[in-house]
Amino acid sequence: MPNLAIRGGEPLAKGRLGNPWPVFDDRERGAVMEVVASAKWGRSAYATPADSKVGQFEAAFAKFQDARYALGVSNGTAAIEVALRGAGVEAGDEVVMPAAAFVSVATAVVNCGAVPVFVDVDPRTYLIDPAAAEAALTPRTRAILVVDNGGLPCDMDALNDIAARRGVGIVSDCAHSHGSQWKGVGTGALGRVGAFSFQQGKLLSCGEGGMVVTNDEEVARLIDAYHHVGGVPGRPGPGSSVVSLACRMTEFQGAVGLAQLSRLKEQTEVRERNLTYLNEGLREIDGVEPIHRDPRVTRWGFYLVHFKFISEQFGGISRDTFRKALAAEGVSAGAGHTQPLYRHPIFAGQPGLRRVCPQTERIADTESWSLGHTAFLGPAADMDLILDAVRKLRRNIDELREVEKA
Ligand SMILES: Cc1ncc(COP(=O)(O)O)c(C=O)c1O
């Protein structure tokens, strides 16, 4: 009789790991019904827009991020585009960014008329390698777009140092890092401007939505104009100062966002506690390794967690067989956001794009595996199930070899 579920044996985890998502109750129901009843569904219906749900959400989010300004927008991709424009990115500029990211991070660059310049990641963290970013700067570079992949903050000391020395802006894509902190400061407030996503599955969900965060008064003025047909900050009417997007946040998103924000701190604590426990267990198993967490990461609010699979220490089994066998045991693991964007169909045929990122390719093809944030919202017993599943595969390497032969 085979032991492994992938060969017909009994799976370890029979139910769903973690929690359904998003978490909601009467707080969200009441908030949405209040907006419906008010008949003010967009903040332009308010004489003082700061009093709107969006305005209240912005104020609360700015505080949460340790930032002076926050601006609600329609989604995370629009947030990146608005942030880039706020940092001065224009047609013909170059924007240096990690090769491993969600595709719309790069299309936001293209939508500004700029060119994404893909650079390699640090193999310890899967985040943009500051040295690679600096080496890719040219006189045409306007910004470095850093991505907190998985929610892990980038090395902002090194990146801000490069930005100051070389005269470029840092734009942070924080779509995965709501709640994460670098040396006690929220990720959105660490560079010149930060962008968040509140899409359905994100750590703070409004179904759709985004937020742009900055400490810089001039950037705050620009992002307001760029998100609202070039309009004057805080005013309902369009202006004419800049060619811009129209990507305003609705009052429904603002109301749900406020309620979801009130849950985030506790959820982040539960996830971090469970991850610490899981990592302790994984360190005891040959062939799997937690991703490196820099001690300057003082809080890690992760959308997904990357782990390393080291085939040579796992009987020569491939990462993909490992993931399939883990899924059969009831632990669904992705490969994370690790694929180099220059392989994506949008960019694959484009001449002139940088395509030299050996670490990114190796990590994407052979090493990374990942678990989503909802797996960490349940009891500690779920972590034991994940550990048991990995241990079970480790014990049955001969069966995994049979799977690879088949
Ligand atoms: C890293 C990253 N940045 C940006 C986005 C875009 O956010 P949205 O889907 O809200 O446009 C995503 C979406 O998954 C993402 O993963």
What would you say about this model in short?
This protein is of the alpha/beta class.
Describe this structure in words.
The protein is an alpha/beta fold and 406 residues long. The protein folds into two domains: 26-260, 3-Layer(aba) Sandwich (Aspartate Aminotransferase, domain 2); 264-405, Alpha-Beta Complex (Aspartate Aminotransferase, domain 1), CATH 3.90.1150. It is built from 13 helices and 15 strands. The protein has helices spanning 26-38, 53-64, 76-86, 103-111, 130-135, 156-166, 217-227, 251-283, 319-328, 345-348, 358-367, 380-395, 397-405; strands at residues 69-73, 94-98, 115-119, 121-122, 127-128, 141-147, 169-173, 181-182, 185-186, 193-197, 210-214, 288-290, 297-299, 304-309, 368-372. The strands form four sheets. It has a seven-stranded mixed β-sheet with strand order 1-11-10-7-6-2-3, with helices on both faces. A three-stranded antiparallel β-sheet has the order 9-8-13, with no helix packed on it. Strands 12-14-15 form a three-stranded antiparallel β-sheet. The longest helix is centred in the middle third of the chain and has 33 residues, at 251-283. The two termini are 17 Å apart. The model has no long low-confidence stretch (mean pLDDT 95). The structure holds pyridoxal-5'-phosphate. Pyridoxal-5'-phosphate binds at residues 75-77, 101-102, 104-105, 147, 173, 175-176, 197, 199, 210.
